[in-house]
Amino acid sequence: MSEITLPPDEQDRPQEDNQPRRALVRQLALQAAAVFLVLSLAWPFYFLRAAEWHWATVSAVTGAVAFLAARLSRQPWWWQLIHLLFVPLLWVGLQFNISPLWYLGAFMLLLLVFRGAATGQIPLYLSGANAAGRLRPLLTEGSALLDVGAGIASLLLPLAKMRPDLKLAGIDNAPLPWLVGWLRTRSTGIGWFWGDFWKHSLAPYQAVYCFLSPAPMRALWAKACREMPPGSLFISNAFPVDDATEDAEILEDPETGLMLYVYKIGGEAAANA
Ligand SMILES: C[S@@+](CC[C@H](N)C(=O)[O-])C[C@H]1O[C@@H](n2cnc3c(N)ncnc32)[C@H](O)[C@@H]1O
């Protein structure tokens, strides 16, 4: 069998990020299996008693079974929640005769905001002035910092105020957060990029900041080691690089308890990446 060689950009991506469709198909299969299981048990139950189907119960049990399956197969917490609520909410929605266009609209809105969660297991949550304050003393005069997955620029804006000497930039690929970030940064001098951070070169930056999820950390660290100049900083809020945790300087936030993991490119951890 011949081996498939991915282009360098694709090699950087974690496996899950390469195959978002496969991840979605897995979740759909899990939900479908729960529906199938509950219906095939409910059918003889109601049929043998010649009883009316109690759809509220059937949908609640389906939600519970899907949740259990998601939990046992260790899906991320937001998928567990989606599995728990999907069929029960469908049932609730049907009681109100809501137009299907509302569902489509809600789905589109979620996709516009949470594209990163659907395609790369990276949801949207924000760091802010507090995290900016923790970065402030770590960055050398005039250095360039990129926030990979910059959301609505909630880190970059306060950091720009605290350290006007820095050259700041952010990149995001979720349409709505990107648009909000663009509006907020357009007159600030912050570089604001649309797109996939896996395809964006990290070479021009002396510091990269990320607040993502455990899923992309190992591949992102490898990308940083390949592309960033020696001595530059790779800083992750809350999520360590598993293989390199021991080499990080770990700074705990006394207010939130969140850790900031600071790695130096060219150090021992980078040599092993
Ligand atoms: C947890 S939020 C962090 C936002 C911001 N950095 C902060 O600290 O406030 C992660 C962001 O990464 C974005 N994201 C996920 N995958 C991405 C990708 N492949 N390319 C660009 N942005 C991505 C999501 O859209 C989301 O806005």
Supply database-style keywords.
single chain; about 270 residues; alpha/beta; Rossmann fold; 2 domains; seven-stranded mixed beta sheet; 7 strands; elongated; disordered N terminus; binds S-adenosylmethionine
Q: What's this entry about, in short?
A:
By secondary structure, the protein is an alpha/beta fold. Helices cover 50% and strands 12% of the residues. The chain contains eleven helices and seven strands.
How are the secondary structure elements laid out?
Layout (H helix, E strand, L loop, with lengths): L7 H5 L2 H4 L1 H29 L6 H18 L4 H19 L4 H21 L8 H7 L8 E5 L7 H7 L4 E6 L2 H11 L5 E4 L12 E4 L6 H11 L5 E5 L11 E4 L6 E6 L3 H5 L1
Helix pairs in contact: 3-4, 4-5, 7-8
The structure holds S-adenosylmethionine.
Describe what this molecule looks like in 3D:
This protein is about 50% helix and about 10% strand. The chain has two domains: about 10-100, no CATH class; about 130-270, 3-Layer(aba) Sandwich (Rossmann fold), CATH 3.40.50.150. It has eleven helices and seven strands. It has helices at about 10, 15-20, 20-50, 55-70, 75-95, 100-120, 130-135, 155-160, 175-185, 215-225, 270, and strands at about 145-150, 165-170, 190-195, 205-210, 235, 250, 260-265. The two termini are about 30 Å apart. It is an alpha/beta fold. The model is unreliable at about 1-10 and about 15-20 (pLDDT under 50). The site of S-adenosylmethionine (SAM) has 24 residues, from helix 6 and strand 2.
